[in-house]
Amino acid sequence: MALRSIGRNMQQQRSVRRARRQRGKPTSGYFVTWDVNSADRRQCARIRRFVYGDQSVYDRKTYRYPGFVEQDGVQYIGQSVLFVTEARLRAILEFLRVEGVNHVVRYGSLGPVSAV
Questions:
Q1: How large is the average pLDDT for residues 100-114?
Q2: Segment 33-42, tens digit of pLDDT
Q3: For the domain that residue 98 is a member of, what is the CATH number?
Q4: Does the residue 8 lie in any domain?
Q5: Band of the pLDDT at 113, cuts 50, 70, 90?
Q6: pTM above 0.85, yes or no
Q7: Rounded to the nearest 10 degrees, how much is the dihedral formed by the CA atoms of 89, 77, 66, 84?
Q8: What is the domain count for the chain?
């Protein structure tokens, strides 16, 4: 039996919850996947902040900055994989290019979340 740390398990549960929350009608667009060197912690943090957003507390007030995945036309598929409509494609590609992140784009379609 393989053991996992609690932190890793919590991350996986958060990913599944994020994917299940997203609703939408079937649409066509692009699957964007990227690969980041996990040893480059600064780059990982910038990508995480851009994609998932950020939250900070200052003077007992919480400030929340929404991420790219919260925009219309963006669907979270899995770790380092997003589905974006043509209207959102340019923004993610420009960000990845500026950050020097290797990425792949594939055209495709996405159906609704299944209750299977």
A1: 90
A2: 999 988 999 9
A3: 3.30.70
A4: no
A5: confident
A6: no
A7: 20
A8: 1
Structure tokens at 88: 């959102």
Per-residue H/E/C for the chain? CCCCCHHHHHHHHHHHHHHHHCCCCCEEEEEEEEECCCCCHHHHHHHHHHHHEEEEEECCEEEEEECHHHCCCEEEEECCEEEECHHHHHHHHHHHHHHCCEEEEEEEEECCCCCC
60 falls within a domain? yes
> Which tokens in the block code for residue 30?
């692009």
Helix 41-52 to helix 86-99 angle (10° resolution) is: 160
**CB distance 89 to 68 below 8 Å:** no
From 3-7, 50-54, 55-59, the region with the lowest mean pLDDT? 3-7
Q: At 8, list the tokens.
A: 């890793």
Domain that holds residue 55: 24-110
Q: 23: which 2 tokens?
A: 């609703």
Token pair of 59 as six digits: 């003077």
